[in-house]
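ok so I'm stuck.
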Amino acid sequence: MKYLFFYITLIILSVQDCVAILISKQIRIPINKINGIFIDKSGDCYIDGFAVDSLENFYLCSGKEQLYISCFSSEGEKRFFKEFTFSSYGPMYLKDDYLYIYTICGQKSVLKQYSITPSSILFSKNIEIISQERINNILFKDSSFIIELLESEDIDGRVHLKSKYQLFDFPCQYKQDVNNPYNLPQSVFKEEDLGLNQFIGRYKQYYIFYSILDSKTCAISIKDYKGKIIVSQTLSMDFLGDILTSSYGGNPEEHKKIRNNKLYILGHKEGFLIITILPLNELLKI
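replied:
not stuck anymore, here's the structure
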């Protein structure tokens, strides 16, 4: 099946109440094991990992009971496909031509490191994440990652779980405890924003956030260092496609990536994986 590429003009309203036009690109990849991406559809559509390199090749970790890693070119053509025997328990991360996948080996939390090119993937080594407590979640951002630990506390005779966040660098060295899963200043992200706004990453001096407004629309917001919204862009969920899930949660931050001065968002519709590409330079002009 021939891959389809098209440009769509979105008419939106900016925070300044001015009508603006944003040109976006969408790539449609068939959901199958032949020329597309294989997703175990015995339930939800699972994508655990999503990464984009500087040449706009797309790396995807999919599956449910079985793990698959595939690569597609910027034109949507399949470059490689590999099946693995271990399970993914979190997102994956691309850094310096290495791909990192979070998994559990026995009682140890491990990042599996793979040497990666657009045409091949080769195992390099296992890197243990040293933590005295069991990791509940992991999130990669800006050449580092943050783990979430769950601590129990007794309040009025009842046990409550409280999240604790720790910052690690590469190669997996503990740096410090942080106040939120994104290690952002409170002027930009407050604790009450958890579950409502997802931090996608930084672009220039700005902070990019994603939030769902209702069943039909979501919003991309750009904030400055004071937490002021500079631009807010609403997008139709019909346009983006249905939300995907992962083995570690629904609609994860992992499905939105900033690279190459662009924002990439995953969705699926009518038997296709859809990658929507939004130019951030154009978004800032709105």
